[in-house]
Amino acid sequence: MGTTQLEAVQEPKYWHLKSVLSDALDSEFAVGEILPNERDLAARFGVARATLRQALDQLELEGRLQRRRGVGTTVAPPRIGVPVGSGSHAWPDEQELWEPVGVTREAAPASIARMLGTDRSAHVHTVRRVRARHGQTVAAQLMYVPAASVPGLGDAPAAPEAVLAELGRLDLAGQDRTVELGSARAEDARELDRLPGAPVLVVTTRYTVEDRTVAVSVDTYRADTCRLTFSDDGSVIAS
Amino acid sequence: MGTTQLEAVQEPKYWHLKSVLSDALDSEFAVGEILPNERDLAARFGVARATLRQALDQLELEGRLQRRRGVGTTVAPPRIGVPVGSGSHAWPDEQELWEPVGVTREAAPASIARMLGTDRSAHVHTVRRVRARHGQTVAAQLMYVPAASVPGLGDAPAAPEAVLAELGRLDLAGQDRTVELGSARAEDARELDRLPGAPVLVVTTRYTVEDRTVAVSVDTYRADTCRLTFSDDGSVIAS
Prior knowledge:
The structure is a homodimer.
Chain A: H1 2-10, H2 13-28, H3 38-45, H4 49-61, E1 65-68, E2 72-75, E3 80-83, H5 91-95, E4 98-107, H6 110-116, E5 123-133, E6 136-146, H7 160-167, E7 174-183, H8 186-192, E8 199-209, E9 212-222, E10 226-231
Parallel strand pairs in A: 3-10
Antiparallel strand pairs in A: 1-2, 4-5, 5-6, 6-9, 7-8, 8-9
Helix pairs in contact in A: 2-4, 3-4
């Protein structure tokens, strides 16, 4: 009894169920196939629905399952490899990947203002873009550009293309990136066809010219369908 | 009535609660402070415990909260920036970051064997290492090294240091990395002081010599406490 209980602590019930389900996905289901509903699945594997849901949560985290409103739970295709670039990327390469969908001119969030070294209340051009791959929107971007980085535009509102064109005139010296786990904000979730709060990979890039941060982008990638790829030479890696 | 229901669909209740909780964390709690229990919190904000739990899940995903067995839910410190390197890194820089904890010699998982181009049943040296930062274990690594990459060792089992030393003799040509969301396997979870299935960032690196893959490492980073940093020149970025 003692051993059994110890093992139960070390490996939760849903964890074992996850392995069993994972094998079933490999052997019995095709990509895109809809799984039986939770009640039927719980009955088949002889577990409580709460346990089943935990196991489904794990498989969703690992990109094996997709849960979509109005569709149900389906077997996910392999994740798409999305090149996030290397240090050798410059403006032009990056720009072509993204499609502008709007721009605002407002105060940046506190964390962004800190990175830009701007006054908290200073307005920045915030260009909103999306990135598609294989016909699917995989990422939503907010590119924060302080007025000082695009002096040619003056203080007036400008079209996203104008902001980006002016930014592109800068001779980019470097870019630093961080990747972390986040949850989709409502606006990003809509563009990514996810529920608000869904796990996402957040890539924050600081663009520098002569040690000065001239722009910061916050790119929100779907964590369920994407794997971010980095390479030495900027070449695309097959996933 | 219609409008209210529509808004409820667009922005779930837990999403609004998350914002309210997030503000409360900023204004009322210090880093490391233990939150009241779920029953008290649910009562304070007038929500069902299921709703509260969803909001806490979101805040945990975003790295604002930590939930630990036997401790409860605490306010998380800012995430640690962990340099994952750039293309300019070579073996020696990388090696110093990791501490070997063991080695096995067994068949690699199917996905790894595919990347290595080895026979599915071929044994590979699998070195297990951990990486600490600021005194905390932040990542667990499995480095898969086929016998062909370390001919000096022969087929016999070898100490982890011997495998790595032999591997370090290769003149590394390149390395490709992918970053994706995963869930912690039981063994990794133990080393990272997490529950099995906790969200993790999985960094898979393919090391190449003359277009040949000589080793593959799978690094599992804590997603709650880490942000992975990448830079042009391999320098460490302040988080």
